[in-house]
Amino acid sequence: MEKHPKFTFIDLFSGIGGFHHGLLQCGGRCVMASDIDPVTVESYTRNFGIVPRGDVCEIISEDIPDFDVLCGGFPCQPFSNIGQKGGLEDSRGTLIFQVARILRDKRPKAFILENVKGLMTINKGTIFSRMLEELTSSGYTVYHMILEAKDYGVPQIRKRLFIIGFRDDLDVDFSFPEPTGCALKLSDILKGKTEREYGFTVRVGGRHSGIDNKFNWDCYTVDGSIHYITPEECLQLQGFPSSHYLAGNSADKYRQIGNSVPTTIVRELGKALVSTGVFDPQPP
Q1: Among the options 26, 71, 76, 234, which is catalytic?
Q2: Residue 30 among the catalytic residues
């Protein structure tokens, strides 16, 4: 744990800790996590020594420790192109209002949220506009941008929407971090010559569809042979070490990784937040 953190954060919808892993690398300290899935809770606890609380809807704001940054990849299924696009009609979609509730009650200095890029266009953008209104009316200046994993250090074609907010009274002029590039190639992770420079988006389901199937994402030609990507290799495509503990069976492991956020993007966003100078030195 960071002895003298630059900032503190809470990790909502924490999964296996993509935000936690990324923010640790730029001086953050987690003071609370929350997730409802027992398997991912076990993974998170084993890796970080923090037991995530349960349903965020049942967490009273007064019971949340003070913190500087709220972060979370709120469930994307209501907004994903492969889902039913229920949007805010889907009960999981309403979790954004729990985020806003905590922002209003706790008044942290900033937040980082992540979701699928399709959130911006579903229902002709009306849902996204409603979300931005909710966040801004909570007292925050909001920025958003689509960032891609391969532009920030990991060889994965994964575009995601990131929403950044700063409390209005801080008067911050924020800029998203410039791409860092990606020296790491897919062949480095798969330990052999590949026909692709970057891997497909790591997904939750649809595994073993075959290398010629248009839905294929986990099968590659490595040194001329067919290779199905392992959970350890998927972890590396998301910026985790291959030793990151994953609870559950094989399907559970792929699901947890597919639901995570590229940790390298989170790290760069954390650095950008720190560079604004809004965080006071934290006590040990």
Answers
A1: 76
A2: no
